[in-house]
Amino acid sequence: MNRSKVVESLQMNYQAIKEGKGKWFDKRVAYTIARSFVDKERRFSDADYRHMEEILKGELGMFNVLVQPVRGILLGMLLANGKSRELDIHTLIKDYQRLREVGFQASSYSYFSAYLLQFTETAEKEFIVRRGQSIFEEIKSHHYFLTGAEDGTIAIALAQQEKLESLTTKQVGDLVEDYYQALNDQGFHKSNQLQFAAANAAMLTGEFSLELIEDIKQVIDELKQSGLRFRPEFYNSIVTLGFLTTLKKVDFQVLREYLELLEEKTNLRFYKDFRHSLALGLLIHEEMSLLSNDNLNISALTITMIMAQEASAAAAAIAVSVAASNSSS
């Protein structure tokens, strides 16, 4: 894989976003959208974005919960996956209503959950939504004050996973909690990011894996050698890399190459942690693409789920960061 071209593609899509309707987007939002287009046959189209946003605004009306940065990231993900028709917006809103009807919160983040439902057959959506709500309540029973609307995405992702079909929703919630405690024992701070990472571990493995925990230790050491601090923003990526390490040898020299390219070719000079998070995402994307068909334990749907989880987490982190910046200015 030509990594220089990957970063050039990322930067090209970023520029297209910033030169269009995304002119006033926070840089991290624009790069999160641009990353959705990496390795895709299509490029970001400002005309398509404006068209989809107008349809969305027309359907939702003036007063609605789908605000920036979630709206921009969500529309970018839809466009990156070839969803640019009016019907795609109608489906998103209808799936959002399904979620609301069973008790999911009225929140921008519930739209990420609705986005995931496009990968479920219509006949199965009612079951997945109800199972997802039950999983959400089980997770919340372990961490009442920690669990919020943004965690709906992980609940739906867990409900969609074939590896977890044989488990009751209580067993799924307990598995997430087992990973939460095990990762906390390895130095992961108790936080929403840890809850995301624990759910990701459950989704990837389908059962508790001591091998994964051991490999995660190695990943943390590798990141430190590459100059990355052990930060909550990286928790989800660390778990995914740990899982990949159980399947194949991960080349962390690739991470160092992406770190250099992103520092050299992007507009993220003053966003070091986000730049590092982006490099981890590109490494994961490349490593997943190298898995052989015989060893493909990660489905395309799972990859999409991971990206949706990360986008939801990124949107939450960016929103908090921007709010803090505005309050201090």
UniProtKB/TrEMBL annotation:
This is DUF4003 domain-containing protein. InterPro entries: DUF4003 (IPR025062). It comes from Enterococcus ureasiticus. It comes from the Bacteria.
